Amino acid sequence: MSWSFSSSMGPVALPEPGDGLGADSTRVEPSGAVASARADGELPVGGFSSASASPSTTGTWTQADPSRLRDATRLELGSRESSISVSLPLPSAELSADGLPASGLRCTRDGGVYSCGDCRTDGDCPPGRGCVPNRQTRRLECMASECEVDAHCFPGSVCRRVDTGTTGGTPIRRCVPEGLRREGEPCDSMPISPLGSCREGLVCVRGMCGTPCRLDAPESCPQGFSCEDDSLEGPGCLPDCRALGCPQGQRCKQLGGTRYQCLAEVWGVCPETPCPQGERCNVNLLRGRGVFWCAPLCNPLRSDSCPEGQVCGVGSPTVSTCYRRCDPRDLDSCGEDWECSTVSEDMTLWGCSPRLLR
User: Fold this and answer.
1) Residues 160-186: tens digit of each pLDDT
2) Rounded to an integer, what distance in angstroms lies between the CA atom of residue 324 and that of residue 296?
């Protein structure tokens, strides 16, 4: 049996007041995979979505709904002038011409570990190359940059970063198809498909398309917007939903500190409801949706830092949290409304996290 995984966005632990990190250190990292286990020749039957360490190497199993796969391209435009309401399918429900999820990777299970190509992390690659998904072969490959600016690509393509930006390695820029998303619409932090990517001239900031700006020039953004640096392509303007409101059907949700964002679907009550002492509010943001849950902090260098039956995995690029251990081969191992996700770069640790349902 071969396995197919597809990209999403994974959990991010947001700083709490007084934790030493500060509200401005929060960064929503792109992550890697959402979609399906399948036997050769069969339709996808499950989902695989990632934690925040490396989009190319982390994932989550979910049960797929065939009706959502058929309706994956439905868009809904709202009437609010402050922003545009667009409902995008999750990457696990957006199908490519070959019938696989748009960000699907072809993987095999070897010795209890999933292998999706020639590498698992940037450390497996020679200098100047990074471990990134090749969307044509659907495998992880050690690839070098092929462009610096859009002009280096053929018409219809743009030059974008395809690495996570979390490992400190060489930034990898590749030519990818130009996106369809307009300013104010949800987007993927890393290029997955034109449906989830911003149009030329825009940057994807914290999962929303915005115009580029300068951090040292607040006037580079319109009134009611702030210049945020949560993007692989540089700072971009984000609306303050507390001042401008949200499109119909969305809510202004606190992400952490003074950061708020319009979301169409929300699961969880932190950080408005503080987590118990010693825990952090983990966040998974994806295409206008968000799940929020409290998880105990842990030390990945200590095997006893989590209670029995739990594993210490990635909570953010700098913080680790505990997850209930699960078996990725058992789609029901986490229970209703939860899914089994990889919580380590090498896909050796698997833990339960709340499921993005639609």
Assistant:
1) 998 866 555 678 999 999 999 999 999
2) 11
**For residue 312, with 0-12 CB atoms within 10 Å meaning exposed, 13-18 middle and 19 or more buried, which class applies?**
buried
Q: What is the pTM of this model?
A: 0.72
Strands 289-298 and 265-267: parallel
For 202-286, list the strands marked E by DSSP. Answer: 203-205, 208-210, 225-228, 236-239, 251-256, 259-263, 265-267, 279-286
Backbone φ and ψ for 44, nearest 5 degrees, come out as: -55, 140
Instruction: Yes or no: say if 153 and 162 are a contact pair by the CB < 8 Å rule.
Output: no
Whole-number Å distance between alpha carbons of 234 and 162: 14
pLDDT digits (tens, 9 = 90+) for 202-240: 999 988 999 999 999 989 999 999 998 878 888 999 999
- Determine the Cα angle at 176 with ends 172 and 179, to 5°: 125
| Residues shown for the chain | 358
